[in-house]
Amino acid sequence: MPERQQRVQALYEIALSIGGKETLEETADTALAGYLRKLNCSVGGIFRATAEGYEPTATIPADPTGNDLLSAAIDRVAAVSDEALPLHAEPTPDTHYYLFLLPEFGVLVIGKQGGEIDTATRSALTPLNEKLAEACRNKLVERRFREQRNRFEAVFDAIPEPIANTVVENGTERIVASNSEFDRTFGTTTKPPNTTVPSDLEAADTESAGHSRPINTDTDDRRITTETTCETVGGTGEFLFHGVPVDSERAAEYIHLYVDITEQKHKTETLQRYERLVENLPIGVYRTTPGADGEFKLVNQGLVDILGADSKDYFETRPVSDIYADPADRKEFSDRLLAEGAVDNVKLKFETAAGNQIWGEVSGIVTETDDGPVFELAVQDITTRKERDQQLDVLNRVLRHNLRNALNVIDGSATMLENQLSGDNEDLNNHVERIERRVSNLEELSEKAVTVRSLFDQGRSTTTACDVQALLTRVAEEFEDRHPEACVAVDTPEESLYVNADVRLKMALSELVSNAVVHNDRSTPEVSVTSKTVERDGEQAVEVVISDNGPGIPEHERQAIESGEETPLQHGTGLGLWLVYWAMSLLGGDIHIDDADAGTRIVLRLPQVGISDPQQSDGATGMTINSGD
Amino acid sequence: METVYSSARGDTLQTELAELGRQTGVDGLLLLATPSVDVTTDRFASILRSLPVPVCGGLFPQVIADGERYESGLLAIGLPTEPTITTVSELSDADTDLDASLPTKGSEAAFVFVDAYADPDGVGSLIDALFRTYSVGLSVVGGGAGRLHDEGPCLFTADGVIEDAAVMAVVDQPMGIGVRHGWEELAGPFRVTDATGGTIKALDGEPAFEVYKNAIETSTDATLRRESFFETAAAYPFGIGRLDGEPIVRDPFAVDDEAITCFGPVPEGEFVTVLSGEPDALIDAAEQAADTARNTEAGTDDAGTLCVFDCISRQLYLRESFDREMRAIDTPAVPMVGALTIGEIANDGTGHLDYYNKTAVVAAVSEDA
Q1: Measured between CA atoms, how close is B189 to chain A, in angstroms?
Q2: Other CB atoms closer than 10 Å to residue A404's CB: what's the count?
Q3: Is the ipTM above a cut-off of 0.90?
Q4: What angle do CA B294, B299, B303 make, to 5 degrees?
Q5: Is A119 an interface residue toward B (CB < 8 Å)?
Q6: How far apart are CA A96 and CA A110, in angstroms?
Q7: How does pLDDT run across B131-156, given as a tens digit for each residue?
Q8: Does B267 touch chain A (CB under 8 A)?
Q9: Cβ contacts of A6 on chain B, cutoff 8 Å
Q10: Each residue's pLDDT tens digit, A210-242
Q11: Scanning every residue of chain A, which has its alpha carbon at the shortest distance from the alpha carbon of B271?
Q12: What is the dihedral of CA A62, A63, A68, A72, to 10 degrees?
């Protein structure tokens, strides 16, 4: 075969080995192998020019350091300029290396032992080298694109929000890629979830198809942001949707980002509900800065109403101390709140817009903000309650002092009158006796009024535990001593049952047993007292039942107790049952008056408490054991 | 290198191989077996396992011992330094990471045997991987193993007998290598327009068999018939051209419809010519290969053994003249051993590593590492 034809064939076959590979390295490696095979050469390399010098892209052998010929060629590559290429050298006899320029990429090195590449072939390699350089450049660009794509895909998948890449074709939008969060949220689908970015976003500046409310549509850069409700794998969710068009030669391509705002929306709605609630509360809620004067930062309608102001504007320029009856109280309150961090039920006198003084009960906390501490406060108008307390104090004094003094005088006068009456004046004796009995009842009523007052003075909470079994036994013994004609039977479980109670429980029990004995019309009053554990509103409770064989409680008195209120037509005859009712209520219990065939059956229930060591105070609860006295 | 040719079997063979393995100066064994040795038996596998030194080898149509060809028996070559034995399995699997299978550098030469019936692309990939990894840094000789008319396990190491694979013994002995064939262009060139692996389906866009038949029948008095394809085609192999060197020979051995199948890959897009060979030219080429091997630096220093891997199809083509080729290669100064292979592998230390057909590969192996 003619040499020229053989050369053309070889060059053609080398050309076949250039291009068509996936990566730059594979492209270079395959082409280099083709050069060496067809030129019958033994070593070679393709080197890429970089700012730092030449970097090997492919070499044969893979490790060029062990081959003297290739090492010599590589040394020369590092020192040669593009203008000096192509270049031929014979570093040792009968070994040759050739350096060829790969335009705008680097240098091709070919080494041959035992012969030369003839000049014509070397010249003919130039177009192949240009083709190789172009293939390498293309692969380099592809690699950069691939790396950029890989970075994009990494970001795409790392974004913790659902994100999808869509295209619009023939008026239909479909998903071409989505991240894992998108698939988790909306499922694996090609259909965008309840959103459609119109192909012409120019028309989307007023209403976007599928979007409930566009927030921002920038027609210049054709982006869209809107809140939307989407169907998700788990139901529906609220999302802030961002649609960003991609600059693409395709018809229309977008990136869709869905920020899940379901929880945020719920929180906002909850906050709005709270704001409405606070706004409409019958108490004043306001925020102020600390200090002797203080500045209002926020007020609700409740405060406007309490202080009789025209509107919230009333508070805008007014110092907080202005609403105090005595502005000095404001400084004292501010200092105390700053010192303690929180206060409860502080009673203060305020002045209304009309100049009237009212009583307010204030609770508040100190909250830290970026601008420093602020007071979050709530005030309740307790003027009416205060006036009622005053009335009660006066009435109590009248009952306890003035009425008792008057009764003592009447009782003494009745006694003198009785002593001076002869025994045969029966009518007058009966009148005196009635006076004495009424006086005694009134004295007893006065005593009970005092007792009732003491019930409330002790408040609602108690930290003491009472052994119900021991208390019942003691109450029964006391009444049997005082009323030997009566029979008071106690039936309780062997183990102790504890309730949260103090002396008020004993007062209630004594009142009930006393009623059962004293108002009993039988010759032998019989009273039965039992206790046991029951379930009350899902909690363990101790139930005490007092039964007697007396005449029973009148219906109107029973109804007054069970309804919790008296009316002119429905009232009791005294304070006894009310005393029991209030004691039980204050201790967290309740009272029921049951129907019975004969006599009365009254049921008391109190929450049971557990006591690990009855001999000791309960360290865990801070509760101490009391006897009920 | 110490060698033993044996026609023994079983325990006797085991004893002879073990004795060779235990000889001083023998740290590894290269076993070249003929089809008379049933390498697929458990007994043969147990013999391999029992040998006191590393072992690898293959089964070939014939072996050469002391300059003579044998169609039966087994030739054992004692390697003076311990070889690194490497097995590349599943050669036909395109996903096999061949580069990772190869041993690290640091040695002088390697004997490489491949299953001649493995996928030609797999064989080509192995050859490419060897060249990319070592280039001329490692002198490689060897060839295709297998029975001439029958596939099956034909390669072995101490781990057993395998097929669709390659085995490699890397040694520290330098060797001078000569590669020549002597075939000359008869017709062509023809562009390979459709090919897969070693199968050519179309030449110049025409059915390959028709083009090939016309080339032979136009240029010679021979007639190519499908039923006697192998016998006629043995005289007219394909040549893949390269500059500054003999073309790479591809030996066609089968025809299926219009497709011609060769031992070794024929890349699509390349040009092939149809070759023919005069016996004297082929024998001269073999002699030149031997001269080249002996006259390289590695071959002249202390050549102790001439390892010959000559193609079985040259023997089938040359017939009785092949013994002249043997004598042309042989020299009284050093023993000549080797095998008649189905395809040859070599680089000559100055050029490209390739898989050849119908080529004489001669290696002058130095005694000293």
Answers
A1: 8
A2: 17
A3: no
A4: 95
A5: no
A6: 8
A7: 888 888 888 999 999 998 878 899 99
A8: yes
A9: 241, 243
A10: 443 344 454 555 678 888 888 889 888 889 988
A11: A9
A12: 90
Q: Which residue of B has its CA nearest to A5?
A: B189
**Token pair of B323, please?**
């013994």
- Output Rg (C-alpha) for chain A, integer angstroms: 50
Residues A35 and A61: their CA atoms lie apart, in Å, by: 14
Name residues of chain A where pLDDT drops below 70. 1-2, 194-222, 249-251, 461, 566-574, 595-597, 612-629
**β-bridge pairing A526-536 and A487-491:** parallel
The distance of A85 to chain B (nearest Cα, Å) reads 22
Tell me the two tokens of residue B171. Answer: 């040694």
A12 touches chain B (CB under 8 A): yes
Q: What is the DSSP string of A13-51?
A: HHHHTSS--SSHHHHHHHHHHHHHHHTT-SEEEEEEEET
Closest CA relative to residue A444, chosen from A505, A519, A550: A519
Tokens read off for B260 = 């011609």
What pairs with residue B85 in β-bridges?
B169
Query: Nearest to residue B86, comparing CAs of B129, B42, B22, B37?
Result: B129
Q: Do A9 and B245 touch (CB under 8 A)?
A: no
| Joined tokens for residue B257 | 């419809």
Q: 3-state DSSP call for residue A587?
A: coil
Q: Is B22 on the interface with A (CB under 8 A)?
A: no
Give yes or no for A10 touching B (CB within 8 A): yes
Alpha helices in B59-174 (DSSP H): 98-101, 120-134
Report the C-alpha gap between A272 and A223 in whole angstroms: 30
The answer to whether A43 faces chain B, any CB pair under 8 Å, is: yes
